[in-house]
Amino acid sequence: MQSGDRRGLVPPGIQAVKLRAYIVEDNATIRENLIGTLEELAAVETVGVAETEEEGKRWLQQHPQDWDLAIVDLFLRQGSGLGVLEACRDRGTAQRMVVLSNYATPDVRMRCAQLGVDAVFDKSNEIDGLVEYCVAHAQRAPLHTGSGPVASE
Fold it and tell me: What does the alpha-carbon distance between residue 7 and residue 5 come to, in Å, rounded to a whole number?
């Protein structure tokens, strides 16, 4: 996963809030690279991960206030990211759902929009866009105290 030399994306004088991200991705290599990239470049703190639809739905429903951003892959080892997205449609107004998928086709993007997804990024060529989205969201996110529980189900 290449993100180029994008250090310092937060403009000088702007205090970025650490976004609490929950990541639903079944590929361990992609997940770990994503976590490292977002923590380094976008002030993102990963509060938990899931590899299956059921794990993702359960954690997000049990911790409704402990995340700011859910990053969801659509094709999982068990189940679908669509089920995860459906399960957190009633999220808080400041919480964001994004999809990171190898299948970011127009039809998939339309289905995601119907589920209330805030953005869709293609894993193969839109990682920089995801980083920029996280930086922008961190600048607008409300302050939260402490960090939510780390979950790895």
Answer: 6
Q: How far is CA 98 from CA 12, 47, 80, 146, in A?
A: 26, 16, 14, 23
- Cβ–Cβ < 8 Å for 142, 94: yes
Domain ranges of the chain: 19-143
* Among 10, 144, 131, 153, CA closest to 67: 144
- How many Cβ atoms from other residues are within 10 Å of residue 69's Cβ? 26
What is the CB neighbour count within 10 angstroms for residue 29?
A: 9
Euclidean distance between CA atoms 89 and 144, whole angstroms: 21
Burial class (CB in 10 A: 0-12, 13-18, 19+), 149: exposed
Q: Tens digit of pLDDT for each residue in 14-68? A: 455 689 999 999 999 999 999 999 999 998 999 999 999 999 999 999 999 999 9
Domain 19-143 class in CATH: alpha beta
**pTM exceeds 0.85:** no
